[in-house]
Amino acid sequence: MKKIFKCACCGNCCRWEGVVHVRENELKPIAQFLGISVEELIDKYTCLSVDRKGLVYADKPDGSCVFQDENNLCTINPVKPLQCATFPYDWEIPEEHKGLCHGHWVEVENERKSEVGLVHVLGHPALPLDIASAPADAQLFNCRNFCQMLSYLGISFIYYGVPGSVVPEGGRFVSTGKPTGRWIYGGSWHRTYNARLNRLLQKNIVKMEKPQLIASMYGASQSGIEDFGLPVMEPMVGYDHCWAPYRVFPSYAQQNIIYTTQAEYTWSTRYFDAVIPHFVHAEEYFIHWHPENYLLYLGRNASDKGIDLARQVAKDAGLELKMVYNGVFGREKALLLSRAKAVLMPTIYPEPFGYVAIEAQMCGTPVLTTDWGAFPETVINGKTGFRCRTAAEFAKAMELVDGLDRLSIRKSAIERFSLEKIAPFFERYFLFVWNVHKNGGYYCMDAIGPGFPLPKQQDSF
Q1: I need a labelling partner for 336 at 20 to 30 A (CA). Which of 12, 158, 356, 438 fits?
Q2: In a 3-state reduction of DSSP, which class is residue 87?
Q3: Do the domain assignments include residue 354?
Q4: Alpha-helical regions (H) of 154-208
Q5: Based on the domain organization, do 212 and 264 belong to the same domain?
Q6: pTM passes above 0.85
Q7: pLDDT, tens digit, for every residue of 280-292?
Q8: SS3 readout for 356-372
């Protein structure tokens, strides 16, 4: 095992006392990145060191690095000086500064080698695996995250999707071809799509000793496939139905809804399901230490998402409500979330999970939600946000929200919903599924699923 450092983007290392020395071989790349000449870079961004023996990068009046922006991010990160890039590995950090850094160390295997051999990922039937093409599509987001998790775990995978898909490292792309029409369940393209999947699976399934599984990422739209003797799982069931015999639900609330509404499909296989929350990449989000005085609603423009309640909460609080329905992802999304005073998610129906709630928490931003669905499992009342049932409770939450610690909110999110935290549970589930599928189902002697706490790993969901 080795340890790697996960930056929390607190920016404190760019603010504390000290200097960053200018290396001659670093000047040209930085200048090119900024679109200026080396002479302009030296003139605008450097100064003579105190001992007058060389140049150092200048500081702003508040003592922060000249390249640090208002979100604590490095504006020249891809070409930053080696001295910065090696933090904290090659540094001797003074004791008085150690407590200022909010990053954390994570243990990882030197070369991750999974016992899982291959996963066939049946992706989105209508959209390419490219978040920019449809930022608001939760299933596409699931496909991207699931593939990146397989890559992180060192599990080989094949992604079956439409042309234009961008597959993470460790995966291979197999095209299902261009859609032949508009996507409608049971329609012409649906039938053609399943026929194509069957031909492609038959061609790409190989004989191997290690576990090999099929992962359906789009629910019943892929229920027409042949399993070719392999276990078929639905690893991220956030939708309102299911079909595969092995399922992972993002919350116990969602599991219970499916078990109630689709009892005929689930009664005989509930033993082999698991509850594992969705996850995000912590490094894609950051804290804004000086949030602006607005509330944020980020989601569908729909009454069942509680948009009218959100408007009323903002009106009662006398605050601006920014309403964003679509089109934001990546840094733009993180900026919206991190700058908000709070994020409103007063969803009226039982939310299966609600990515925005954990994305906001990754930014250290409190979340105000209703008190049902998945929220009791994702929002810690009075710690990472408030779960409310009445106008009075929403009003009281607005009075208290500034007292919540943004750093604690982010740390809690990392500990509960980061890729590094969640990935091992999925790997355990893959091995569990293979085991019960091959060795007797319920009576398999060593069938221990990811929800059961083992002595060396007490966390469970």
Answers
A1: 12
A2: coil
A3: yes
A4: 188-204
A5: yes
A6: no
A7: 999 889 888 889 9
A8: HHHHHHHCCCCEEEECC
Query: Would 428 be classed as within a structural domain?
Result: no
Task: Look up residue 341 and give its DSSP letter.
Answer: S
Cα 228–chain centre separation: 32
Q: How far is CA 8 from the centre of its chain?
A: 15
Residue appearing with tokens 């998402």: 305
Cis peptide before 250 (omega within 30 of 0): no
Query: Cβ–Cβ contacts within 10 Å for residue 4, how many?
Result: 10
pLDDT (tens digit, 9 = 90+) per residue, 299-351?
A: 999 999 999 999 999 999 999 999 999 878 888 899 999 999 999 999 999 99
What's the pLDDT tens digit per position in 127-145? 999 888 788 888 999 999 9
Which residue in the block uniquely carries the two structure tokens 């789009």? Answer: 218
Question: Does residue 140 sit in the same domain as residue 158?
Answer: yes
CA-CA distance, 290 to 11, in Å (whole number)?
Answer: 13
Both tokens of 186, joined, read 């049971």
- Written as six digits, the tokens of 75 are 């504006």
pLDDT mean over 211-237: 96
Burial of 135 (0-12, 13-18, 19+ CB in 10 A): middle
Question: What is the extent of the structural domain holding 387?
Answer: 287-417
